[in-house]
């Protein structure tokens, strides 16, 4: 049975190592725009049932309990929490935050596919098109919106209507409409890095709509969504994870000492 204890403790250490990796990534992305915190979920492994619950005793009565020795734990999933992050006012006309469940759509030039993001730090490229802020890849907002070169002011309404003011005009002119995507299961989206997600069979297909419709959320101009990482909570999880790892390590050390003692006794 000591060998079983060693195995169980080893699986516990492996599980805690994975949880530590998740916590480290959360803390590393505290300042990442619209980052969503992850959580490691665990499940127990199979059991050796020495006595099943409900077995009959010598007098014919059913026992209320059994004897089941478990074989440790493993990570069952790493789940993303899409709770809304706080808003940071920036004053930049093309900094946009979504107040709701929606995602911006951007075109990935390498694959030609539409991918999704909550990070609304947009810029204007050399062609006047609104693009996701990046120093390495030019990903255009979908549907494409072009800002006139002589625009003196950009206004984006809560409903996603993009308007500009041009010289010689006292009124705003509409130049585009931002659409948001929603998913029945956003936790099923595939994380691609660079604040991007792509749809999968688990997430379901994207449902498109204008901001303010069908729960997609509203647009907040001059603001960015902060990450929803709670540093204090992550630090507490870090400490408990470290303690759990150390305790499992102690079980392995103790189990190894017992095995050595038993082996030495058998020599006599």
Gist?
24% of the residues lie in helices and 32% in strands. The chain has helices at residues 2-28, 231-266; strands at 38-44, 47-51, 67-70, 73-80, 87-89, 96-99, 104-108, 113-117, 122-124, 130-132, 139-142, 153-156, 161-165, 173-177, 180-182, 190-193, 196-198, 207-209, 218-221, 223-225. It has a five-stranded antiparallel beta sheet with strand order 8-7-11-10-9, with no helix packed on it.
Question: Overview of this structure, please?
Answer:
- The chain has 268 residues and is α+β, with helices and mostly antiparallel strands.
- The chain folds into two domains: 2-82 and 229-266, no CATH class; 87-225, no CATH class.
- The protein contains two helices and 20 strands.
- The chain has helices spanning 2-28, 231-266, and strands at 38-44, 47-51, 67-70, 73-80, 87-89, 96-99, 104-108, 113-117, 122-124, 130-132, 139-142, 153-156, 161-165, 173-177, 180-182, 190-193, 196-198, 207-209, 218-221, 223-225.
- The strands form eight sheets. A five-stranded antiparallel sheet has the order 8-7-11-10-9, with no helix packed on it.
